[in-house]
Amino acid sequence: MIVHRLARHFTAFRKSKRSFSILSRHLDAASTVFASAARLERVEDPELVLSDAQRRTIYALSTPPGKAGVAVIRVSGPDALRVWSCMVMANSDARSKDKARETDPEPWKMHRCKIIHPESGESLDDGLAVFFRGPKSFTTEDVVEMHIHSGRAIIASILSALSRLSFCRPAERGEFTRRAFEGGRLDLTQVEGLKDLIDAETESQRKAALKAAGGTTRARFESMRDEIIKCLALVEALIDFGEGEEIEKGVYELARKRALVLYHTIQHHLSDNRRGEILRSGIRLAIFGPPNAGKSSLLNFLAQREAAIVTPVPGTTRDILELSLDIGGLPVIVADTAGLRHTDDVVEKIGVERARQTIDKSDVSLCVLSLPELTLSGTIHIPPAISSLISEDTILLLNKADLVSASHINAISKLLGVKHTWQVSLTSGEGTQAFLEGFGRALQERYDMLQERVSEIEEPLITHSRHRAHLESASKFLQAFLDTPAEDVVFGAEELRYAAQAIGKISGLIDVEDVLDAVFRDFCIGK
Ligand SMILES: Nc1nc2c(ncn2[C@@H]2O[C@H](COP(=O)(O)OP(=O)(O)OP(=O)(O)O)[C@@H](O)[C@H]2O)c(=O)[nH]1
Ligand SMILES: [K+]
Ligand SMILES: [Mg+2]
Fold it and tell me: Which CDD domains match (predicted)?
């Protein structure tokens, strides 16, 4: 197959007498065939698979350490059953002593048992144990789980007993999940989904992560890759049948047509305003405004606790204070910032600079203004340093309503051209409930997460910047294919191959060592 492809490039190389640049492009293409052949061989190398099977059995505590009803110690690898026979004394074994240990434990079934020390035979705890026979286990290897009482001494004694077994070693961060990935049970999008699921703090995060972990994201990327491979098959057929055949033009056009549809689909996903990534990692909200407007009071109201210092002294807040909160079911990282004003105070100056940077980086900004100050002179006055930061998407909160008599919502939102304005008193509580509900809805609307419409809105496909980067590169290769004229069909095929590879990287099908390290680094031990 590889020889065949190389031969094709060299034929094309001989045929194209057109220019040196064409010659060198064919040579380039031939060398990428070599490179990808080398990669393919690495992945399919049977010796690699063998050494995988021979690897050590790992163990770790898979529940948080501390006092609780139950803790789970997980063991995975080729010697998991040896661990069972050394340390798990099932009650049924004890009853029929002669038959004991001659047969494997019945898999996928909870066994009431004693956990014993492999050397002394001392009983360490009473509990339950279950054996998952690979590949029908989380890691696809043989897995043993011991469900024990969660107490520091119990856990320590069992982990120390495990360390006595020469064929076992403690697991590294995310190693169980990594083995599940390497065993083909999960692809990278599912691994990421699993981690996001564990980290999920809001409904929207949980739902999105569950979909990814369950393989929905994987299927969507796989179908894109399949489509590219179908285009590639058409183009390869064309190369194989050679030039001058009747089918030639129609086939290339068909491949281009299909590639164009896919190209548009990918563009559509890329232009999603980073919705999926923002919903996964949290919407960054910057609270800003002049000193003493009530920004820190707002943060405390949203957090329902005294997180920030509030005093009548203007310039109280200097450093950025960030909290992760749930607003309208969405994850929001709220940042309280220093009041914006000109100052000679060195510390406050730094605070103001940081405030500006935070507003710059934010996804949503919320401006707090103090009504009595706004209306002090009879006409509405907003300092230019503030109004220059307000756009129609800025959320406006008019605070200290207890100190004015009328509603200024209409006049001020018209003046500043903003879509969302509320008038509240953060000290008396007037208007705060309406603000909280309205603000939650405004966020849901902005991120297409309105509860009543969620079922009809398309789920964002891209939830990690990693996906975006590979999808962007796939889109570039598709574009390059679409720009390749029919007579350069060999190059066209090469572009499609790159496009398929770029998408393959999202699932981790293709050269991913560095990506793997990055993904699994964030896991904890026992996962
Ligand atoms: N009357 C009244 N006072 C308020 C209201 N909200 C906040 N305050 C008071 O206004 C003062 C300033 O509030 P902060 O929350 O510290 O204001 P800030 O915008 O964070 O101020 P800096 O961090 O200094 O920029 C405090 O004394 C608050 O108690 C309100 O709705 N009505
Ligand atoms: K203040
Ligand atoms: Mg403050």
Answer: trmE, TrmE_N
d(CA 109, CA 88): 14
| 281 pocket-lining for ligand 1 (C-beta < 6 Å) | no
The average pLDDT across 185-195 equals: 94
Q: Give the mutation target among 292, 311, 428 for probing the ligand 1 site: most ligand atoms within 8 A of CB.
A: 292
Greater model confidence, 211 or 519: 211
Strands, sheet with 123-132, edge to edge from the N-terminal-most edge strand: 88-90, 110-116, 123-132, 143-150, 68-76, 57-61, 168-170
Contact 420, 440 (CB under 8 A): no
Which residue's CA is minimally distant from atom 16 of ligand 1? 310
Q: Tell whether omega for the bond before 331 is within 30 degrees of 0, i.e. cis.
A: no
Q: Where in the chain is the domain with CATH 3.40.50.300?
A: 289-447
pTM, entire model: 0.76
Q: Which atom of ligand 1 is nearest to the CA of 300?
A: 15
Q: Which carries the bigger pLDDT value, residue 21 or residue 264? A: 264
Ligand 1 pocket check for 314: Cβ under 6 Å: yes
428 CA closest ligand 1 atom index:
31
CA-only gyration radius of the chain, Å: 31
Q: Is the pLDDT of residue 200 over 60?
A: yes
Supply the DSSP symbol for 345. Answer: -
Average pLDDT of the chain, as a whole number = 86
pLDDT for position 17:
42
Q: Tell me which of 305, 373, 426 to substitute to probe ligand 1's pocket, judged by most ligand atoms within 8 Å of the beta carbon.
A: 426
Domain with CATH 1.20.120.430 in the chain: 216-272+459-522
Superfamily designation of domain 216-272+459-522: tRNA modification GTPase MnmE domain 2 (1.20.120.430)
Quote ipTM for the complex: 0.99
Closest ligand (CA of 297): 1
Instruction: Note the maximum CA span of the chain.
Output: 97
Predicted confidence (pLDDT) per residue in 99-148, tens digit: 455 678 999 999 999 999 999 999 999 999 999 999 999 999 999 999 99
Mean pLDDT on 378-398? 92
